[in-house]
Amino acid sequence: MIYHEDKSSGVAFPIVAILIAMVAIVGSLMLSSGNQTSARVWVPDGSAVPSYVSSR
Questions:
Q1: What angle do CA 56, 50, 53 make, to 5 degrees?
Q2: What is the per-residue burial (b if ≥16 Cβ within 10 Å, else e) of 17-50?
Q3: H helices then E strands: how many in the chain?
Q4: Is the pTM higher than 0.85?
């Protein structure tokens, strides 16, 4: 007859891996939220008429 030994479920490793991932995500969000740079958008002057618009 074969007797099976009780093995530990090994729950600690997945929990530690999930906690490390959560800390890494929160840390990266905190670091990226501090750098708020303004976006520069080029807007053409309103007095210029595009070449495809015919002025009648």
A1: 35
A2: eeeeeeeeeeeeeeeeeeeeeeeeeeeeeeeeee
A3: 1, 0
A4: no
User: Measured between alpha carbons, how far is 56 from 50 in angstroms, rounded to an integer?
Assistant: 14
Residue pLDDT, tens place only, 23-48: 999 999 888 877 667 778 888 776 65
How many residues comprise the chain? 56
Alpha-carbon distance of 49 to 17, in angstroms, equals 60
Mean pLDDT, the chain, rounded, equals: 78
Q: Which residue has the tokens 């990266």?
A: 28
Site of tokens 């997945």? 14
> Which pair of structure tokens corresponds to residue 9?
């479920």
